UniProtKB/TrEMBL annotation:
Aminoglycoside phosphotransferase domain boundaries: 19-217
Pfam families according to UniProt: APH
Signal peptide positions (record): none
Gene3D superfamilies: 3.90.1200.10, Phosphorylase Kinase, domain 1
InterPro entries with a match to the protein in the record: Aminoglycoside_PTrfase, CcrZ_PhaseVar_Mediator, Kinase-like_dom_sf
Protein source organism: Lacticaseibacillus paracasei subsp. paracasei Lpp71
Entries under PANTHER family matching the protein: CELL CYCLE REGULATOR CCRZ, PHOSPHOTRANSFERASE YTMP-RELATED
Source lineage: Bacteria, Bacillati, Bacillota, Bacilli, Lactobacillales
Protein name, as recorded: Aminoglycoside phosphotransferase domain-containing protein
Amino acid sequence: MKIIDSVAKAYSLGSVRHLQALHNGKTSMAWQVEATTGRYIVKTIQSQKQAVFEFAVSNAVRQRSLELTPEILLSIACQPFVVIEGQTYQVQAFLSGTERPPSLRETLKSYRQMRQVLDQFDYSFSPPDSMPLAVLWRAHREALSEKKPVLFHQIAAMVPELKRIDQSRDAWIHGDLGKWNLLVTNSGQVVVIDFGEARLGPKLLDFAALFQGFMPKNKQDLMAYLNEFLALSGIQITDRHLFLMTVQLWLVKGLLIVINEQASLAGVFQNAIELVSSLV
């Protein structure tokens, strides 16, 4: 791919020996690149402004600990991006993850370190939410009503409160902290990747995403899991209701995104929403 060759040249990576397309994210495409100087991740970025912002966030996190997130590299022009044929590209150091899934304790330990950085982070620009609840609700409420009428009425009653949470801008967040953005290294360190959805947003949204990622499927295990999660995360008992409603926000947005195209995944979100409703 000639464009990747041009990216490699702009970053002085050497000759590209092997190129593998990776699963595309919400806002970008990515490739694993093996060059003469090593392995890298090359991804598209929406804009130069976004690229500089992602570099600033990840660099702040890495100042806390180099193990928390991969390094975003600078080009030979000392910029955290390169523009080729009108498209902005970014290059990251490649981290090899293990097959071992992350544990809840290890994940929350890493995220709480990152949370300390994000609580002190200061930046003049915040990207918008790429999928706000108000937009998703307008676009998919009819489909939800037709396919899952009982669930529709349950969610409709929550929507006003969920919108208020979704519109809050009280903390810097990763914004897409599902298990797909976690890696476990050989040393057992949980690493967070892809700041493409980072922004100002609801303060507990990242915790909500992690809660869903480790949530048990059985209702009888849910209360013990909630108590363990609150203890490990440091979330105060006074924020319990806000946290659970933020979990519902994360789940409802996920459901609306998949309702028309992925029936089996919609069922997973439905089950999770009903389980969390028993805790609220």
